[in-house]
Structure formats: C-alpha cells, structure tokens
Design a protein that fits this description.
Rossmann fold; 303 residues; 30% helix; elongated; 2 domains; four-stranded parallel β-sheet; single chain; alpha/beta; 11 helices
Length: 303
C-alpha cells in the first residue's frame, strides 16, 4: 500500500532541518518504520494545500496544539478535509489542547469524526484521555524504539540525585514543588536558563544517577507512552513520579518520591531492577499486527 504520514511540526513532517532540540524519539518516524517493515511504501513529509492525495491508500495526520511549533497547519488541514478517511494521530502529551486551538480552522465536532490514534502502553485506557472522541485507538511504539547507549555506572558509585530532563517549564516547576531532599539535575528548560542536549546524551548520563524524575500530566493514568520509562529502565535507574500515573504499572512503581529517597541503598537498587523487569510493553508482532489492521479498516471515519 501507499501510505502518507504528515502533520504540522518539524517532527511530524520529517523536516530535513529539524532542530537539534527536537531530535528525540519521533513517534511518526516509528510509525513509518513499522509500515516499512510491513513492506508498504511510505511518504513521510509535509503536504501542500491543493495537492492530490488520492494515490494514498491511507493517510495519517499528526496534530499538535496551534502554537509556534505548528509550522504547517494549512497542509495538515488540507489532508484532513480532502481525505475524510484520514486518521488523526497524536504524539505529544499536550493533546488535550488540540480541539480548542484548532476550532478556528476546523469545527471540533468535525475533527472528532475522524478515528484518532494514540500511543499508549498496553495497560493504557483511552477513556481516561479526557477527549470527546468516540473512536480512539491505541498502539505501543516501544518495540520499534532503539534505545541509545547508557553509562551503566555501578550502583554504589552513582549520584544520589534525581535527573529531570524536559523541554517544558511546567515539568521543572513540578519537580521543584515536590520539596525533594535529593538534589535535582535539571536539563532542557531553556526559559529557566538550563542547557539543552540531545536525548542520546541524556540517556548516557542517566547511568550515572540513581533516580529519574517523571513529571506528571493532567491526563495521568491513561497510560500515555513516554520513552522516559524505557530509558530509565535501560539505564538501571529508579523512576519516580506521581502515584496516579506510575502506580498502575507495578508495585515497584508505586512508591512516593520521598519513600524512595529514604530507602536503604540496597533496597533502592532492588527497586530499580524490579521496575526494569516489570515494565510491560507490547511485542513487535503485537504492534505490527495492530498497525496492519488499521490499513485494512475501510471505515476509519463515521458517516
């Protein structure tokens, strides 16, 4: 089949000059990789208003709230309106802002008529995403993600500190509000004067720390896919955050941040190992089967 993957941001459209600060794991790229593994022809690019998209069997349109990062909203809108059967795809935690920021370009009720695709872990629940969309389907990109190298320092030599990497100012303010006893190593908050480094460098540095912070979202509990979970487990760190988000995963993830800080070192090391062992993700076969099934779905939008 001929498949088009497009959207509004540099990441969505596979922009060749994508900013270094956005060179993190790209969910649209992982989707393209999956369809290519299934022997389909994939175009991952921006769309021009007025172009003929009829040659594509399926069209996947990634959306993002309309702000300075949304570089090609008109192209995405054309794809949605010229291909009524296109899927609306999500790749960013701020998806709850999409409907009201797009309402001047497309009526929310029309946008909600499309089938939406969301990256969730297997334990996720689309009903907890807080979206008035009848047909939301989930998929787990985990088995398609190639994890970067990490500096696996011996546990006793690691820093008893939290590593908090995020481009979001809110995430760093959340970390500060937790009143933690461990120091917080903060990366990514440009407006706060913090340096920005590549995601691969972040994961490499994880291996020198005992803890990785997981700032919570308003939709915590829906199982939203966060590569941070995979990276922390890969680096052998303990992951700490909101019980509402992490508590549903496994008992080893249910400890509060303050409980983790007070644990004996040997127990904390055991918790980190147990978390890594019990991080449940889909298999490659399960993910590919789900994506292939959507290609054969002839009714991806309701009448």
């Amino acid at each position: 089949m001929n498949i088009l993957i497009t959207g509004v941001t540099e990441t969505h459209t596979n922009h060749q000059n994508r900013a270094s600060s956005t060179k993190f794991v790209s969910i649209p790229e992982l989707m393209a990789k999956a369809f290519q593994q299934l022997d389909h022809d994939v175009d991952h690019r921006s769309v021009k208003v007025g172009e003929d998209l009829s040659r594509y069997h399926k069209v996947f349109v990634y959306l993002y709230p309309l702000d300075h990062n949304a570089l090609n909203p008109e192209g995405a809108l054309w794809a949605l309106e010229s291909r009524y059967d296109s899927y609306v795809c999500l790749d960013d935690w701020s998806f709850q802002k999409i409907l009201h920021t797009w309402e001047d370009k497309i009526a929310p009720e029309d946008l909600c008529k499309h089938t939406w695709l969301a990256p969730l872990f297997p334990w996720g629940d689309t009903a907890l995403m807080g979206l008035p969309v009848d047909d939301i389907r989930s998929w787990d990109p985990s088995p398609l993600c190639e994890l970067p190298a990490s500096h696996h320092m011996q546990w006793g030599k690691r820093k008893a500190e939290w590593y908090n990497a995020s481009l979001s100012k809110d995430a760093h303010e959340w970390a500060t509000s937790q009143n933690l006893s461990w120091p917080i190593h903060s990366i990514g908050g440009k407006s706060l004067g913090q340096p920005r480094i590549l995601e691969s460098e972040v994961v490499w540095q994880y291996g020198s720390y005992k803890g990785v912070l997981c700032p919570t979202y308003t939709h915590a509990g829906c199982g939203w896919w966060r590569v941070r979970y995979l990276h922390a487990a890969h680096a052998g760190c303990v992951l700490g955050g909101s019980h509402k988000e992490l508590g549903m995963m496994h008992d080893s993830y249910s400890h509060t941040l303050h409980e983790l800080e007070k644990m004996p070192d040997a127990e904390l090391e055991r918790i980190a190992a147990t978390q890594a062992t019990n991080l449940k993700t889909a298999t490659l076969e399960q993910t590919l089967t789900k994506l292939e099934g959507w290609l054969n779905d002839r009714n991806s939008r309701r009448a």
